[in-house]
Amino acid sequence: MAEPIVLACTPGGWPEDAPPRSALFCLSPEGHSGDDLEDLASYFRRLSDDHGMLPWTLAFRVIVPLIAKGAPKWRERMAASCYGLAICGVTNLADSWAGALNEATRRNDLHLNTLVPLRGVVPPAKLLSPTERFCPICYADDERSNRPKYNRLLWSIDCVTACQLHGVQLQPVVKAKRAKGSAFWLPGRAKRANASTFWLPGVSRVDGRSLASDTGTGAREYEIEFARLTANLIDDLHQHPHAFENIGAPATFLRYATDVLFAGNTTHFARHIAVSKGGLHEWTSGKIRPSLPRLVLIAYCCGCAVADVVLGNKVMLLKRPPPARPANLIVRRRNGALRPRQELQDEFEQIVESGTASSAREVADRLDVSTKFLRTLCPVLHKRLVDAGKERSQKAVKERGKLKFDEFQKSFDSMLERQERPVRRRVQSDVFERTGMTFGFKEAGRFLKRAHELADVDGRGKAGCGVGGCGGKPRTRNRPSVDRYL
């Protein structure tokens, strides 16, 4: 029997009060502020290079066992997450990775290299960037300072599109094509190079060259200011974490800004920050919270910090015009609402009366409007469509259940005719071989009970085939009839 691996222990001969040694090198993350703090994915890649191992191998052997136990396929997928930005986001995955790395390296601050501190402050929508990005001038500064190139945590935030230190736009990392039948990406023209170096920050995944040689494109002024505001928010979270506990929506600040800057006119304030009046009303009423891009935009237009918006601080405000082309959170692809309402209502009624649409979603697509707009356009017709859809769905479920029970009963009766004991697993296996149908555990139990009842009523039951395998008449219980499940 193999002995379990101890990840932190005291070597033999050391004093008993000596601190235990860590399983991995206690590598220090780079950076000290929101402007240059390293993210957890970059930290782990540099850590794997110091151990002379591929990131996936180190994650599979050391980190994943510390997170949880699971099937081999699950462990492989969990280890493969080290190549993405998800381990430095706000989900439980990032929290688990930070905790496991803290335990393996005997550190206690690696959760600051993720976006987990933002979890209770801003909604998770539009927070983590879908792609890995970099600033080439930052990499060049790393090389000139004789320090390892690393990725900044600020680059992993979706609303940050520029480097606030050098005033250039962030560039996406180009990924190499995966070779057929290979678990890892192969380098293009440098096949003899060490494969692990292609995963280090600042190294091209295509040919292994340094990304510090790239030239950056100048960023707009508001993009640089957005990055600065986000970096300041990260600093405020790290320096004063208790101030952000148990906070709600920034409704207090929005009402204060409306009164100070726009004399209480919510329509003008909504137009100033490029949102709808209804969206601003939901924020001020506390029903929903603005996402981080919207919080940064509000802070930019009001001339304050993002922390002031989140905490509801009544500070001095400065009206600043919004960017010329602010980034839309949702791209509008429906233009049907621009048509006259009476024309839309007549067409809506015609579609419903003709019966050519089976759901409200289908009608909305044909009118080129959203389902929410369709509900407000004509609530009566919308409810009629929804009720018809529910009735149709319930009928389909009932027919499906009846079909499955008929196939279950066929296998059950055939086993009785062959004088075999029709237990649940045998019946399920026979149905699967004939039709490919599968059953849930509770569903198969209900079908088996009903099949036994029908067999006893028809006189086809026999000793040894009762419910529970005890023979004789099936046991009766105070349970509702199984007819309602079909």
Automatic annotation (TrEMBL):
<feature type="region of interest" description="Disordered">
    <location>
        <begin position="465"/>
        <end position="486"/>
    </location>
</feature>
<dbReference type="InterPro" id="IPR001387">
    <property type="entry name" value="Cro/C1-type_HTH"/>
</dbReference>
<dbReference type="Pfam" id="PF06527">
    <property type="entry name" value="TniQ"/>
</dbReference>
<feature type="domain" description="HTH cro/C1-type">
    <location>
        <begin position="269"/>
        <end position="309"/>
    </location>
</feature>
<protein>
    <submittedName>
        <fullName>TniQ protein</fullName>
    </submittedName>
</protein>
<dbReference type="InterPro" id="IPR009492">
    <property type="entry name" value="TniQ"/>
</dbReference>
